[in-house]
């Protein structure tokens, strides 16, 4: 959980939803907040993987690396990004 920066430039917040099987993902596409935030609810499929559906209806799979400071996300059409924890 916490604050993350995507390799695509987006700022992300990951937070608990109050249910152990899910988490909330808030994405801010613009550093100045000019664009609206996107909200997603992801579901854990293992201790280190979760999935969610993006705004275009594509399934996104995320793998949390053992260090806990990096997440690799993969989607349709070989799209991928890295999320790095912000300190």
Summarize the structure.
By secondary structure, the protein is mainly beta. The chain has strands at residues 2-6, 11-16, 22-28, 38-44, 49-53, 59-64, 70-74, 80-85. It has an eight-stranded antiparallel beta barrel.
Describe the overall structure.
This protein has 87 residues and is mainly β. It contains no helices and eight strands. Strands 1-2-3-4-5-6-7-8 form an eight-stranded antiparallel β-barrel. The two termini are 12 Å apart. The model has no long low-confidence stretch (mean pLDDT 90).
Largest sheet composition: 8 strands, antiparallel, barrel
Helix content: under 10%
Cα distance spanning the termini: 12 Å
| Structure summary, number of beta strands | 8
Principal-axis shape: globular
Strand content: over 45%
């Amino acid at each position: 959980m916490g604050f993350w920066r995507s390799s695509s430039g987006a700022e992300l917040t990951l937070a608990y939803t109050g249910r152990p099987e899910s988490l909330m993902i808030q994405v801010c596409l613009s550093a100045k907040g000019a664009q609206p935030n996107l909200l997603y609810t992801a579901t854990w499929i293992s201790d280190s993987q979760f999935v969610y559906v993006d705004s275009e209806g594509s399934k996104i799979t995320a793998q949390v690396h053992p260090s806990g400071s990096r997440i690799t996300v993969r989607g349709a059409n070989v799209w991928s990004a890295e999320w790095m924890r912000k300190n």
